[in-house]
Amino acid sequence: MNTNITSAGPPAEGGNTFLVSLGRLAVSIFIPLAAFAVLWAGFIFLRDSNAPQTIIALVAIIWGVGGVALLFWVTDYVVNRMPVVVAKKIQPFVFVGPAIAILAWYLFIPTMRSLYLSFFGPQSTNFVGLRNYIYAFTDSRMLEAFRNNLLWIILGTGGAVGFGLIIALLADRAKGEKFFKSLIFMPMAISFVGAGVIWRFIYAYKPLGEAQIGILNAIVTLFGGEPQAWFTIRGLNNVFLIVILVWLQTGYAMVIISAALKGVPSAIIEAGRIDGASELRVIRSIIIPFIAGTLVTVSTTIIILSLKIFDIVFTMTNGNYGTEVIASMQYKQMFRFYDYGRGSAIAIVLVIAVIPVMWYNLRQFSKREGF
Amino acid sequence: MKRMMLSLVIIMLLASPVFAGGAQEAAEEESNVVRVFGAFVDEEARRFEEAIKPFEERTGIDVIYEGSSEFETLISVRVEGGNPPDIAALPQPGLMKNFASKGVLVPMWSSLEDAVDSNYASVWKSLGSFEGTPYGVFHRVNAKSFVWYPKKAWDAAGYEVPTTWAELEALMDQMVADGVKPWAVGIESGGATGWAGTDWIEDIMLRTVGPDVYDQWVNNEIPFNDPAVKDAFEILGDIWLNPAYVYGGANTILTTSFGDAPSPMFSDPPKAMMHRQGNFITGFFPDDIQANLEEEVGVFPLPSINPEFGIPVLGGGDQFVVFNDTPAVRQFMEFLATWESGELWARSGGALFPYKNQDLSAYPNEIERSLAEALVNAKVFRFDASDLMPGQVGAGTFWSGVVDWLTGKNLDSVLSDIQKSWP
Amino acid sequence: MAGTHKQSRWTYLLVLILLVIVIIWSVPIFGLLVSSVRPRDQVMSTGWWRALDSEEGFTLDNYRQVLGGSDQTFVNASGETVRASGDNLTQAFINSLTVTIPSVIIPILIAAAAAFGFAWLEFPGRKFFFTLVVAILVVPLQIALIPILRDYQTLGLTGSYLGIWLAHTGFGLPLAIYLLYNYISTIPKDIFESAFLDGARPMVVFARLVLPLSVPAIASLAIFQFLWVWNDLLVALVFLGGTNDVAVLTQKLASMVGSRGQDWHLLTAGAFVTMVIPLGVFFSLQRYFVKGLMAGSVKG
Question: Choosing among A48, A109, A153, A191, which should be mutated to test the C contact, i.e. which has the most C CBs within 10 A?
Fold first, then answer.
């Protein structure tokens, strides 16, 4: 890899050092100011302008994207003009700074706010201590939700990652890889609302003697059985809902695992094959360990998605028939019952529930050293 | 590389006056704009917009209506987030009370209050009030206590409209003997599943214990597991839990969307003969039925159970409340309190209005006319109880309680669970 | 080395297995496709597999309404009954694009930089901030809506495109950072060592080395972020608004289904109409899922 990417430092100049330093200082201030001025002007234009929609859209896209790149470049430029000792300390923050700042504003501070509100009553006017948390951990519907979310985590993650891995492995070796991957991916592209309609047609129920419009019941009646109202069957109905999640998320897992599979050095695989290992062995002992990190990442994200699952349950069963989940309870508390205290407490409970996942990831992270 | 970046910055800087130009004279325009936010969308929104056009033309005020399927979430977020609309159409009085108690609503001013006093029956003003102060103006409303039937099939079978509960029960048995199911019922509704069931219970309560006890029930002055409530559930259970009386049985009730529920009445031959639902259900009938409503469909009020309480009318509706007090907003609200603001919508169909002085001939067919008449002339009118109760019950345990009861849970524990959930 | 005969048998078997899986997987979507060309009353009375039996045949009416505006009847001020179409989707389409494209590119840029920092640079608080990123993945974005809206009101960002791009960036960053971190941390250390040894500045290493090597991960992330923003409804409604000039595609489609969800047959067609663009993005980014960008860079 050609690493001719060193930068030429500013040449040292003799004589007139004062003017030169002044000039350098001026440029150091001017560049960021100029960049800022441009961005501000663009911002005002976009906010207040009456120009036709397409112009605004175009300016918006260029300004937005270019602006970020510009900001990065400018910040880096400024940092590099500082004394080396300072620069080295600040450098990493040029990279992580914007992300941390944005996350703090958009997610971290609101979470802290929720933590604060969780100790207050419904209208956030009276302090109630741990009462909301006691509700969260003892209410029968909440307990049902905890049990269900656990089921979602196990079956949903297992299913999606499992299928995603199998399909990624198969597609990697087969002809027409793009075709197969596209079809597995397609469910993700159909918005959730569309997916809801689709699965209604699979689970739909019509009484005995009627023409069935749901596939499952059509198959059941074909073999002489009685049509079932699938979602009302306590216990099993959770599985029917989880199937929808697996159907939707396998494409996601597949895409990521597939990208990781591409990065496995062919040299190692060939070495394994030359040694006489069967294909299955190669997969088990060479490939999977190599992409283990990716498998953990994908599993982590789907576990967290399963903890947060809302739309599927809310629109299919509204949490009835024993299918309630945590996020649905949270929504109802906040937006139907107007109890901000309980709603916030449930949100914090979700954060607490993810601690094991955090801990595991932190362990993996700690093993890394940086530069 | 650096040179290129530098030149890029300078070029953009020089170009920035282009950006700066085009700033808008926002201030003056806003004073003639009224922003209204509501839950009705699509065709209903269009009909609303058409109905208020005369006002816009007359006054030059631009009323921008935004309708959203996510109204339930958005209205709280926008109000709490400091970005409320000028006016909002709230579907539940509880929501109005919530906002009023936070002090974010503008109470009625005297000229508006006068208009409401003269154009509405007093019940509509009290439904829009919180602690004695009026806030909400009702516009489109719905009436719920009606039974729909396929006219041609009834005529062919010789059924007659029942006027008492005993006659209704006899009619049901007659239908069963004729080999058809009496009722088509469906309560599925996504995130709101169960509300259609609560409407039945409310209608029955009004007919068995009367409006005063109904009010006590709404205010939790009698507990939810009071014998009166249990009795109402059992009366409903005599119908719903009897597979002979309901098309498809309990499973069908639970899994059929409320909008698809009437369709068994319109198959050939009909698979069910009656459907109890509010006036808006006409919009869900098959297209060919809707085209010939008066000939295809008949409607009668749900019969009385206890003759002492007659046939009360159960209903609901959106009330318009004010968040931002401006002269344009005031003008528009006063317009909304008059029949003129609803007339064009009434003529388009599917909407009833409460104005005392409305012109009943505006409704497009005899059916809507009779419903509007029933509503305006009701001796006893009550608002939908689940919309009046606190959210935990009215949009929570009451809904899920009906579902649980239908799947076989013991009625006593259902009712006591609902009572326990009362905040 | 396995003989070519065995190889081709393997391949055919694999293709067969994949085909079976894919067919079962796609049955639901196929069902939706068929339903979207049937009239509403048909859909609710017979299964979609019976579509060929029905005399009424197929109709493109659902698509016509979705693309051109849903059918509406109303009485206008002159007293006439008018049949008109609601707004078509053109404006909403442009709005969706304006919202989505920067909302994909901006978070990716910021997340890639952050992921690089977490993966390869030392700085105080590195562990702490990374833990926060993972923890924040689970936070339901509803809790952020009200406080952010309040902040936007103060800053005058409500209803602006900048506001919604930043919001989508904020909500999309945790996953983006996490996914990119996972990928960037697998870049072999030797590559960086030689670059830093040559005295290269981190920003240059990032721009010239990390970004090109991370193309598969960035492509995946771009697809997901695009999907999520394109199909989003709530965030757009809160920060941008739902009035006709700024409403995005999802908002228009949701309102087409009617106040009580009575026109869900339009949903079937709508689902396919909105699906076209994300699938297009997926296909066009497919070529970045190429083998060997990193696999070839290991020495020896």
Answer: A191
Query: In B21-150, where does DSSP find H-type helix?
Result: 26-30, 42-51, 53-59, 71-80, 93-102, 110-119, 122-127
pLDDT tops 60 at residue A278:
yes
Is pLDDT of A86 > 60? yes
Give me the pLDDT at residue B114, please.
96
Q: Is residue A362 part of a domain?
A: yes
- The secondary structure of B66-95 as a DSSP string is EE-TTHHHHHHHHHHTT---SEEEES-HHH
Separation of alpha carbons A198 and C198, rounded Å: 57
Nearest to C233 among B57, B70, B347 (CB): B70
Shared domain check, A139 and A102: no
A182 with A312, same domain: the answer is yes
Q: Which of B:258-297 have CB within 8 Å of C?
A: 258-260, 263, 267, 280, 283-284, 286-287
CATH code at C245?
A: 1.10.3720.10
Distance (Å) of CA A322 to CA A231, A236, A346: 10, 10, 19
Tell the CATH superfamily of the B146-311+389-421 domain: Periplasmic binding protein-like II (3.40.190.10)
Q: If we measure between CA atoms, which residue out of C279, C275, C273, C268 comes closest to residue C51?
A: C268
Q: Does the distance separating the beta carbons of A192 and C102 come in below 8 Å?
A: no
**Superfamily designation of domain B32-143+315-379:** Periplasmic binding protein-like II (3.40.190.10)
**Residue A10 banded pLDDT, cuts 50, 70, 90:** very low
Torsion region of B222: left, alpha or beta (phi above 0 gives left; psi -120 to 50 gives alpha): beta
Instruction: Look up residue C205 and give its two tokens.
Output: 């290493």
Which residues of A fall within a CB distance of 8 Å from B391? Answer: 336-338
Using DSSP, how many helices (H) and how many strands (E) does chain B show?
A: 22, 12
In this prediction, the residues of chain B whose per-residue pLDDT falls under 50 are 17-28
Q: Which chains touch C (3 or more CB pairs under 8 A)?
A: A, B
Distance CA A66, CA C102 (A): 10
In this structure, is residue A127 part of a structural domain? no
Do A211 and C291 make contact, defined as CB atoms within 8 angstroms? no
Closest by CA position to B184, among listed B75, B291, B265, B107: B265
pLDDT of residue C166: 92
The count of domains in chain A is 2
The verdict on C267 touching A (C-beta cutoff 8 Å) is yes
Contact: B193, A31; criterion CB under 8 Å: no
In Å, how far is A291's CA from the nearest CA of chain C? 9
Whether residues A363 and A220 share a domain: the answer is: yes
- State the residue range of the domain holding A62: 2-117
Most A CBs within 10 A among B97, B181, B255, hence the mutation to make, goes to B255
Confirm if B267 and B204 have CB atoms less than 8 A apart.
Answer: no
Q: pTM score > 0.80 for this model?
A: yes
Min Cα–Cα distance to chain A from C259, Å? 15
A280 touches chain C (CB under 8 A): no
Does the beta carbon of A57 lie under 8 angstroms from any beta carbon of chain C? yes
